[in-house]
C-alpha cells in the first residue's frame, strides 16, 4: 500500500494526541487517517468523510483495526459543520483536507479522470452527482465552455479548444476529447500533455471543487478547539490561492483597506499560520511518487 502525499508532514502538522478528536474530510483510501489514528493511539478518535463509496470501502478495510475509534460517513466535506454537530464531539483538535483525486480514482479507467486511457467522460467523485464531464463537453454553449476552460484550467487557448470541441461533438470518451484538444493546442506548452488543462477544468467544474473549498474552510476553522490545527493539501494554483487567501485573511486582526487610517471592520484574527510558506514534498517523495510534485500543504492553528 503506497504512502499518501506528505504523510510525515501531515502527522507532524496535526500533532495527534492520545485523547484527541480528528477529522479527515477527504478520507480516500484512509492512508493519512491510518497515520493519525496510529499516532493518537490508544484513545484518539477520527471522523472520515468522502463522497465516493469506493473510497470509503477502501478506508473501511484499512482502518478496521482501529474499531470504534473511527467513524466513516459518506458525505461531502461541505457538510462538515453538520456532520460534527450530529456527533456532538464538541470542538476538534485537527482537520485534514487532502484535495484532488486519489490514486484509486485516477487508476480506475472507467471513472474517466485520466486522458491516457480510453473511458467514458465521467470525472465524478460522487456517483450520485447528476453532472458528468460528457454533459458539459456536449451540452455547454461554446462561449461558456471556453470560459470554463479558461477559469478552471487556466487554458490560454480556451477559445480554440472550445471551438474544436464544439466542431467534434458529440464526444463520448476521454481519448476522443484528448485528441481533439491536442489538435487544437498543437505546439503550445512544453512537457505537460496538451489535454492536462482541459481535464483539470472539467473535473473542477463537474465536482464544483472551488465552491466546495470556499464553503468548507470557514466551517473547518469554526470547528477547531483553541490550539487545534487545520491542514490543507492543494494540488494546483486555483485551490492553493483560495486556501492561502483565506488563511491570510483569517490570520489578520484588521482587514480594512491599507490606506484607511482607522479600523472600521472590527475583524479579529481566528488563526495563525504555522508556516508562512507552503510545505512541499521532499525530492525523494516526488521521485517515488511523481503525482506528489505539485502538492502544497498549508497549516493554520486556531487561536
Ligand atoms: C487525494 S484523495 C485523499 C486521499 C487520502 N488522504 C488518503 O490518505 O488515502 C481525495 C479524496 O477526496 C474525496 N472528495 C472529493 N471531493 C469531496 C467532497 N466534496 N467531500 C468529501 N470528499 C471529497 C475524493 O473522492 C477522494 O477520495
List keywords for this structure.
single chain, 303 residues, alpha/beta, 13 helices
Structure description:
By secondary structure, the protein is of the alpha/beta class. Helices cover 42% and strands 14% of the residues. It is built from 13 helices and 7 strands. The chain has helices at 7-14, 31-39, 53-63, 80-87, 103-107, 133-139, 142-153, 158-168, 174-184, 196-206, 209-223, 237-250, 283-288, and strands spanning 21-24, 45-50, 70-74, 92-98, 224-234, 271-273, 296-302. Strands 3-2-1-4-5-7-6 form a 7-stranded mixed sheet, sandwiched between helices. Strand 1, helix 2 (31-39) and strand 2 (45-50) form a beta-alpha-beta unit. Helix 1 (7-14) packs across helix 2 (31-39), helix 7 packs across helix 8 (158-168) and helix 11 (209-223) runs parallel beside helix 12. The longest helix is centred in the C-terminal third of the chain and has 15 residues, at 209-223. Bound molecules: S-adenosylmethionine. S-adenosylmethionine binds at residues 4, 26, 28-32, 49-52, 55, 76-78, 98, 100-102, 125, 207, 212.
Strands across the major sheet, in which order?
Answer: 3-2-1-4-5-7-6
| Global shape | globular
Low-confidence stretches: none
What does the radius of gyration come to?
A: 20 Å
Report, as a whole number of angstroms, the end-to-end distance: 37 Å
Amino acid at each position: 500500500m503506497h504512502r499518501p502525499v506528505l504523510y510525515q508532514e501531515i502527522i507532524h502538522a496535526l500533532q495527534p494526541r492520545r485523547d484527541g478528536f480528528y477529522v479527515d474530510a477527504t478520507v480516500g483510501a484512509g492512508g493519512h487517517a491510518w497515520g493519525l489514528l496510529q499516532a493518537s493511539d490508544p484513545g484518539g478518535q477520527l471522523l472520515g468523510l468522502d463522497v465516493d463509496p469506493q473510497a470509503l470501502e477502501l478506508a473501511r478495510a484499512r482502518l478496521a483495526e482501529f474499531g470504534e475509534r473511527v467513524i466513516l460517513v459518506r458525505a461531502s466535506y461541505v457538510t462538515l459543520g453538520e456532520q460534527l454537530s450530529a456527533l456532538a464531539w464538541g470542538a476538534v483538535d485537527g482537520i485534514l483536507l487532502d484535495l484532488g483525486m486519489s490514486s484509486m480514482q485516477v487508476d480506475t479507467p472507467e471513472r474517466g479522470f485520466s486522458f491516457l486511457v480510453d473511458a467514458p467522460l465521467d470525472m465524478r467523485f460522487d456517483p450520485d452527482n447528476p453532472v458528468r464531464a460528457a454533459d458539459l463537453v456536449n451540452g455547454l454553449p461554446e462561449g461558456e465552455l471556453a470560459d470554463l476552460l479558461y477559469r478552471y484550467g487556466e487554458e490560454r487557448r480556451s477559445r480554440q479548444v472550445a471551438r474544436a470541441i464544439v466542431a467534434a461533438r458529440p464526444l463520448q470518451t476521454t481519448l476522443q476529447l484528448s485528441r481533439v484538444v491536442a489538435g487544437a493546442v498543437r505546439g503550445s506548452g512544453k512537457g505537460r500533455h496538451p489535454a492536462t488543462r482541459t481535464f483539470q477544468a472539467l473535473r473542477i467544474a463537474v465536482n464544483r471543487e472551488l465552491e466546495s473549498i470556499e464553503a468548507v474552510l470557514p466551517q473547518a476553522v469554526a470547528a477547531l478547539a483553541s490550539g487545534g490545527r487545520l491542514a490543507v493539501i492543494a494540488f494546483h494554483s486555483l485551490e492553493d490561492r483560495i486556501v492561502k487567501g483565506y488563511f491570510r485573511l483569517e490570520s489578520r486582526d484588521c482587514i480594512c483597506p491599507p490606506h484607511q487610517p482607522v479600523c472600521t471592520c472590527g475583524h479579529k484574527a481566528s488563526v495563525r499560520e504555522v508556516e508562512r510558506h507552503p510545505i512541499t514534498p521532499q525530492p525523494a517523495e516526488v521521485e517515488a511518487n511523481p503525482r506528489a510534485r505539485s502538492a502544497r500543504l498549508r497549516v493554520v492553528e486556531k487561536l
